[in-house]
Design brief:
Length: about 325
Amino acid sequence: MLLQYDVKLINRLKNSQPIIDYSTNLCFLPTWRDDLNNSDVSCFGNCCLTSAFNIDSDLNCIFSCKPSLFDHYRSSNIFFIFLPIRIFPRKDKKVISFSLYGLDKRYLRNAIKVIRAYKKLLQDWIPRFYVGSDVPPLMVNRLIYEGAEVIMVYQNQPSNSVNGPKPPSYHGMFWRFFVSQDINVKRYLVRDADSIPIQREIDAINQWIDEKTMFHVMRDNAEHSTEILGGMWGGIVNLKSFNLSQTYEAAISDGFNVFDGKGVDQYFLRSYLWPIVQSNMTCHVSYHWFFISDRGCKDFPTKRTGNEFVGDAILY
């Protein structure tokens, strides 16, 4: 579970940037340290005395040491295990949720730009990245340094699923949606890791907050021809009104897993979330299509500047 950190790089940065205190000789993720006391540390150490590694028994040991970690460790559904690398121990957080997986340099490079832009425009919101195990450890370090929460995601294929339903290969697109199940989060935004925020978006978010609706949906380009864009919606955590685990598992059972490729997340949102969202949302649109419902939607509160639009991707 431990990540190997670039100690030389960290030391080189000490003189010019805040100290990042990592360690690889402890039997727990060092980014939990702020939330641990001496008895916790001793207990975690005992979890590593055996010579064999077994994820089930090791997790049970960790839960016995720090029961509060269970909320972050437990599977949100039968398909994923979420491992917290860095989580701020706060209640009623406002979180901007991203997925990051693979080695595409465009996403890795631009994620930092996106974090900094959101921290400037939405200072009381916390960026959170659900990252794949294939994301380089140095990138994970950088996300943490930039002030983001980080959750590692592992595939958790059920043992009885050999002939049963399997999630789409593009399941990483969905990780960011599971912020909607975090009981420590009050309000969330789901965004793309390669899209820089603009003031037009922030003004729309503020109007949504003022209107006190549960969901926020935006469409701001001629190509935004679907009810809900994968990286342009948000909500208030309310598991009674919207339980993503149940919805996702129902979708897989319905045969949703036969769909794959780009846009599969938006098919899911259109088919399974849109019917829930419509009755309690703030919806901002700037283009209209006869085949897409825009009932209850309105213009953005801010005029467009030049050719910019919400959700525009960085292409370099």
